[in-house]
Design goal:
The chain is α+β, with helices and mostly antiparallel strands and about 290 residues long. It has one helix and 15 strands. The chain has a single domain (about 60-285), classed as monomeric porin ompg (Porin, Beta Barrel), CATH 2.40.160.
């Protein structure tokens, strides 16, 4: 009887030891699984955060990275008696520059204009006046707020005088962009340019422009908003103030952020002949 008791006791001890080992193995496995889940969740959260940051900064004209924009304005109707259309295609390149301890952003815009000109209003397509501005980027305590100001120059590069102003122009540019919210970003671009030197018999240019912009992120790279360009001719009082609504999509592939959008615009207030009545603004912007 005693032998049976000893055997039973040994079996019980063995089973207890096996249960302890199994419990320890299960505990270790659970810890490993939990750690793996937390790692995947952290990586997913980081990916989402990166995507949100890319979407929020995709429309920042002061982003401290190189950018190449291919933008087009199709003008479906011009003010006046004619039913003519027009078009402007713009290649725009921007890059940050370091001068000593300061940071600047240089932006070059090269337009190709198609305009109805002359008494017969025939379309002429050619290079327009190239503009360059270099804006000094002010240091901000909040990296999501950008503010810059600097000189602007417009060169009389139009191959047909009717597609440009036929004079050098100097001016100033000021840009502000606020991306403190991952959902809503806003800002503005202000420019003023004045003709200098020989105007070749043309009226000296005095042109101001305001471009307010606001964007709301819809999720998964989609966003809406607008960036109308309002122009004011300070010589003759002509002006153009379009307003529109944009639908855009931001995609990040490797180190490049692609921003594609279309923005129909209607001119809510204008003065003068040859202003856009309505236009479609669409573009592919790339940051890299």
């Amino acid at each position: 009887m005693r032998n049976i008791y000893l055997v039973a006791q040994r079996v019980w001890v063995k089973l207890s030891e096996d249960r302890i080992k199994t419990t320890r193995r299960d505990s270790i496995s659970m810890k490993k699984a939990l750690l793996a889940m937390l790692t995947v969740a952290a990586m997913s959260s980081a990916d989402v955060s990166t995507a949100q940051d890319a979407a929020a900064q995709a429309n920042n004209p002061l982003a401290k990275i190189q950018a190449l924009n291919l933008q087009n304005y199709y003008i479906g109707a011009l003010t006046g008696d004619s039913d003519e259309t027009a078009n402007q295609f713009v290649i725009r390149y921007a890059t940050p520059l370091s001068l000593g301890d300061s940071t600047w952003l240089m932006r070059v815009s090269v337009p190709v204009n198609t305009l109805p000109v002359g008494t017969d209003m025939n379309d002429v397509t050619d290079l327009g006046d190239i503009s360059i501005f270099a804006a000094y980027l002010f240091e901000s305590a909040n990296p999501d707020i950008s503010f810059a100001i600097g000189p602007q120059i417009v060169a009389p590069t139009a191959q047909d005088d009717r597609l440009g102003n036929d004079q050098w122009q100097l001016g100033i540019a000021n840009v502000y962009f606020n991306a403190t919210s991952s959902k809503f970003q806003y800002g503005y671009l202000l420019t003023y340019q004045n003709g200098v030197g020989d105007t070749n018999g043309r009226e000296r240019v005095k042109l101001a422009a305001v471009q307010p912009f606001a964007f709301y992120q819809l999720g998964q790279g989609w966003y809406t908003g607008g960036a109308p360009l309002w122009t004011f001719d300070l010589n003759n009082g002509d002006y153009s103030m379009p307003l529109g609504l944009r639908l855009g999509k931001v995609i990040k592939a490797n180190d490049t952020v692609y921003n594609m959008f279309v923005e129909p615009q209607y001119n809510i207030a204008h003065e003068g002949i040859g202003q856009p009545e309505w236009q479609i603004y669409f573009a592919l912007n790339m940051q890299f």
